[in-house]
Write a sequence for this structure.
C-alpha cells in the first residue's frame, strides 16, 4: 500500500 | 513528525532567512540567481494548491510562509533592488527545465488530475531549481560567504529529508517513490556542489 498520496510533507 | 523532518524544515526556513538577511543587509541581490528564486516560487505555488486541505496548523503556516517569502524575494530582486541584479550572469535556460518537468509530471504521476499533476510537477521542478544558481556560481567562479551559507542550509534540508524518509519507511511503512527519486537527485546536485566547493 502506497500512502505517499497524502502529501503531508512540505 | 520526527526529528529529521522537523530539523529539515527548520533548515529550509533558515535558508530563506539567510537569503532575506543578505539582501536586506547588503541592499543587494548580487550573486543570487533570480531564475532559481523564480523556480522556487513556481514550486511552492503549484505544490500548495492543496492549501485548503487541512493537515495541521504547522503544515498550513509553513505553506503560507513558503509561498509568501518566495514571492517577496522575487519582489526584492525585480523591484526594490533591481539595479543590483545582473541578468548577464544569470543565463541558464529555465524553459527546458520547466518543459521537461511538466512533461515528466504528465507521464509519471499518482493520478491524472489537475492538482496531482501540478503537485508532481513541483516535486520534479524543486529537484532541479537550484541549477541556475549553481550555473551562475560556476560562471562567476566564487560565491560570497552568505551565498554559501544559503546553499549549505538548503543542502542540509535536503539531506535531512532523506533520513526522514528512511525513518518513516521503518516506523510507519511510508513510501512515496516520486518524492524519493526526485529528492535523491536533488540531494545529489547539492552534494556535487559541496564536493567541488570543498575541494577548492
Amino acid at each position: 500500500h502506497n500512502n505517499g498520496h497524502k502529501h503531508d510533507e512540505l | 513528525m520526527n526529528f529529521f523532518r522537523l530539523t529539515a524544515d527548520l533548515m529550509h526556513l533558515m535558508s530563506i532567512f539567510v537569503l532575506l538577511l543578505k539582501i536586506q543587509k547588503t541592499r543587494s541581490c548580487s550573486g543570487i540567481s533570480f531564475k532559481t528564486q523564480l523556480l522556487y516560487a513556481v514550486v511552492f505555488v503549484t505544490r500548495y494548491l492543496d492549501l485548503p486541505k487541512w493537515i495541521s496548523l504547522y503544515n498550513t503556516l509553513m505553506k503560507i510562509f513558503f509561498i509568501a517569502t518566495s514571492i517577496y524575494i522575487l519582489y526584492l530582486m525585480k523591484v526594490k533592488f533591481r539595479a543590483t541584479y545582473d541578468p548577464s550572469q544569470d543565463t541558464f535556460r529555465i524553459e527546458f527545465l520547466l518543459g521537461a518537468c511538466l512533461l515528466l509530471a504528465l507521464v509519471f504521476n499518482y493520478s491524472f488530475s489537475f492538482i496531482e499533476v501540478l503537485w508532481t510537477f513541483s516535486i520534479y521542478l524543486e529537484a532541479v531549481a537550484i541549477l541556475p544558481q549553481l550555473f551562475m556560481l560556476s560562471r562567476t567562479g566564487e560565491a560570497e560567504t552568505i551565498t554559501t551559507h544559503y546553499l549549505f542550509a538548503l543542502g542540509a534540508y535536503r539531506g535531512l529529508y532523506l533520513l526522514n524518509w528512511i525513518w518513516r519507511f521503518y516506523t510507519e511503512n511510508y513510501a512515496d517513490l516520486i518524492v524519493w527519486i526526485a529528492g535523491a537527485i536533488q540531494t545529489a546536485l547539492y552534494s556535487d556542489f559541496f564536493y567541488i566547493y570543498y575541494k577548492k
